[in-house]
Amino acid sequence: MLGRAREQGLLRLSVVNFRDYAESKHKNVDDEPYGGGAGMLLKPEPIYNAFASVLGPREAYPGKVLLMSPQGTPFTQRIAESLAKEDDLAILCGHYEGFDERIRHLADMELSIGDYVLTGGELPAMVVIDGVCRLIPGVLGEDASHQADSYADGLLEHPHYTRPRQYLGMDVPDVLLSGNHEEIRLWRRKESLRRTWLRRRDLLAGADLSAEDMKLLDDVKREEE
Ligand code: 4FV
Description:
alpha/beta
């Protein structure tokens, strides 16, 4: 998807190795933490130099600068949708134990992809790039497909089925074979609410639920008691 989007000119992606902008003769990008402690930290100079050389003065940069770290704001579909409206994004990827604190001053937003620790910020950056760029019109082919995403309306997605009708004794729900679009819409909405109720009750608070949803949710709660 993203490769094709780049070929179609929908997306431009470049990677900058800030070691190329390190000042020391050995091109060091990391150093020991003041105050002691295990591991190494990313130095500010190589990253500031790289930013200035590649993107120009920070204050004149038109886009959003993102810094990937476990201390960041959890990356969500809502954030992906807001970032997809930006023309330019610059993503700073951590390494070693993390960043010298002064590097954070370059960032508009600090993002985390989850409460776990990785070896580098590159994979988190790729997660953000994928989650954001698939929302660019034209990247996913007919745009409708991401409108029915999980989280598109704050709920988990309903179950999906395709051929064959029966597999290993597992049947496709009759309602999906009925051709009755209203019945299908109601079933999908109810199953979306059921899955969210069973797996991510925390999401319901933030979801904009209609009166019809509340009734469906009551049915679900009764059925799942
Ligand atoms: C991370 C995350 C993450 C921390 C130490 C890179 C690592 C190393 N980034 N969401 N989770 N980063 O684990 O964004 O520098």
